[in-house]
Amino acid sequence: MSRPFSHHDHPYSLADYGWDEACERAFAPHHAAGLIPARIVRAERGSCEAITDAGIVRAQIPGNIGQGDPSKAPCTGDWAALRPAVDGRGPVLDAVLERRTALVRSSASRNSHGQVLAANVDTVVVTVSLAAPLNHGRTERMLALSWESGARPCVVLTKADACADPQSAAHEVSEVAPGVDVLVTSAVTGEGLDILTAVLTGTVVLLGPSGAGKSTLGNRLLGEERLATGAVREADGKGRHTTAWRELLPLPGGGVLLDTPGLRAIGLHDAGEGLEQTFAEIEYFAKDCRFTDCAHVSEPGCAVLAAVADGEISQRRLDSYQRLLRENDYAASRTDARLRADREATKKGITRHLRATYQFRERQQ
């Protein structure tokens, strides 16, 4: 297993981590307040590691930041404003800048909040191993999250050296990834890595299950063995979680790499637009359905069902689309229920305050 990389091994600046003129403009009010610009490279409970022009610092995260909503908590990739260290106390995170993009899944606790996996990402690399049977449903799920984030997705087929016909597999995956580059790679032979390097831009996040070869691919992109890697179990072809946290690492040719732990479950969270782009061909035919609210089940005049009958859409694609829509609708209903409960709690709080005020005035008369 390779040695985990430490940011303290190399001197880097904010520019190496993506700081540009847009960041400078967004940070102007914080500059005026005497705060320090930083990008979070690793977030933990109560503290984070962040890159500044003075190097890597550990900053305390106040309890009120992100309280009650995990999606607002500081995350790897966030641009942040730090209050400088004073009187022997380390720097403190003061604010998180507005995110340009955010890769969000439903939280592991299955509550109504989303969990941000990565912030301010430009390219999402969906990794799919060719050493295991293809799982199109999982790929579609990851693509929906990727499109919804606002970043550009790219599917990378890893371990081509372990596949008898990688080009056939690439064609098959392309059928479920409309509008997305699908690249065949091998970390063993180096196949496709030069093409992949050419298409990656900005902050790049590696997304996929354990055993898909994310960390090995990341090491090839970095040009060094910085990310911990582990063997895949022969019994079931599954990998172990060798990446224990999310962290940012500068790429030698420019840009930033964000490696993520393998995801066993990727629940959708408010991913309606992502689903539309992932299943673009279904949305294309749906415009010609007789009913605007057609569910594409048994309705008369359904253009989608007609396309399935004509072989233009596979039944598996339609089934996957409907399954993910139901999941997304359920997640949205939980969010709506939480918001209604929050509004009701706010109204009750105002009512209690007014009642107490009136009672106090009556006692004073």
UniProtKB/TrEMBL annotation:
Cofactor: binding details: Binds 1 zinc ion per subunit.
Swiss-Prot/TrEMBL cofactor(s): Zn(2+)
Enzyme class (EC, first level): hydrolase
All copies of domain CP-type G, residue ranges: 113-266
Keyword set includes Aminoacyl-tRNA synthetase: no
Positions with a binding annotation for GTP: T158, K159, A160, D161, G208, P209, S210, G211, A212, G213, K214, S215, T216
Cited InterPro entries: G_CP_dom, P-loop_NTPase, Ribosome_biogen_GTPase_RsgA, RsgA_GTPase_dom
Cellular localisation: Cytoplasm
Residues binding Zn(2+), per UniProt: C289, C294, H296, C302
Pfam families with a match to the protein in the record: RsgA_GTPase
PROSITE patterns: ENGC_GTPASE, G_CP
EC number: 3.6.1.-
Record bears the keyword Cytoplasm: yes
Domain named EngC GTPase: residues: 119-264
Keywords: Cytoplasm, GTP-binding, Hydrolase, Metal-binding, Nucleotide-binding, Ribosome biogenesis, RNA-binding, rRNA-binding, Zinc
Entry-linked Gene3D superfamilies: P-loop containing nucleotide triphosphate hydrolases, Probable gtpase engc, domain 3
Function field: One of several proteins that assist in the late maturation steps of the functional core of the 30S ribosomal subunit. Helps release RbfA from mature subunits. May play a role in the assembly of ribosomal proteins into the subunit. Circularly permuted GTPase that catalyzes slow GTP hydrolysis, GTPase activity is stimulated by the 30S ribosomal subunit.
Family, similarity comment: Belongs to the TRAFAC class YlqF/YawG GTPase family. RsgA subfamily.
Subunit and partners: Monomer. Associates with 30S ribosomal subunit, binds 16S rRNA.
Protein name: Small ribosomal subunit biogenesis GTPase RsgA
Gene name tied to this protein: rsgA_3
